[in-house]
Design a protein that fits this description.
- The protein is mainly alpha-helical.
- Helix 1 crosses helix 2, helix 1 packs across helix 5 and helix 6 runs parallel beside helix 9.
- About 50% of the residues lie in helices and about 10% in strands.
- The chain starts with a helix and ends in a 5-residue tail after the last helix.
- It has one domain.
Length: about 200
């Protein structure tokens, strides 16, 4: 199942749309569960290690490549969360998918589990994924067997966060996600190698 199809199915279930960070994390965790359910393969989507967790390769171009994915700007004060992604299909299309597409039913179930998890917690969870930990920002990778061993936390283990606390946690995660790169660049400037 390719990136476009997964995003389209996610946004069909999430009728109100998802912001950029939430959608990128949702794709990652939905893809993992689809692999577990033998509906997708780990090589269907490649990911890029980014400060806020894995981002699907080609994610930034998805709206320009496909007319059925809409992106609208919304003022949030956070540059990385100012775009809302939605699907350009009527509701009747989703009802037809229910019977036709096995991926749709699986995604609908998985999204039910993800709904209880704040975006900042999804980012924190993605920061513990082995592929994210072992790579540096900008490196591309596929979901590994080690990543597959990590499961989402149980509902009763998920911390409650207000929207403001969620945004503050996202800001902190962004800094933490960039910290290693910042330290390495600073060290390289202070102590350049001899080549």
């Amino acid at each position: 199942m390719d990136l476009h199809k997964i995003i389209k199915l996610i946004l069909t279930v999430e009728e109100r749309g998802l912001n950029k960070v939430r959608l990128a994390k949702t794709v990652y965790f939905v893809h993992k569960e689809l692999i577990r359910n033998h509906v997708a393969s780990s090589t269907d989507i490649k990911y890029i290690r980014m400060p806020l967790g894995p981002v699907p390769d080609g994610f930034m171009e998805i709206a320009t490549k496909y007319a059925d994915i809409l992106v609208t700007e919304r003022p949030t004060g956070l540059a990385y969360n100012s775009k809302l992604y939605s699907v350009n299909k009527p509701r009747w299309w989703a009802k037809r998918l229910d019977k036709k597409d096995s991926g749709y039913a699986a995604i609908k179930r998985i999204l039910g589990e993800l709904d209880a998890i704040p975006t900042s917690v999804l980012v924190e969870i993605s920061h513990s994924e082995p592929s994210w930990v072992k790579n540096v920002n900008g490196v591309k990778f596929y979901i590994s067997e080690q990543d597959m061993k990590h499961r989402l936390p149980l509902r009763n283990k998920i911390p409650y966060r207000t929207e403001a606390a969620d945004e503050q946690s996202l800001q902190a995660s962004l800094v933490n996600g960039m910290l290693k790169d910042i330290v390495e660049e600073s060290t390289d400037l202070e102590f350049p190698s001899d080549g």
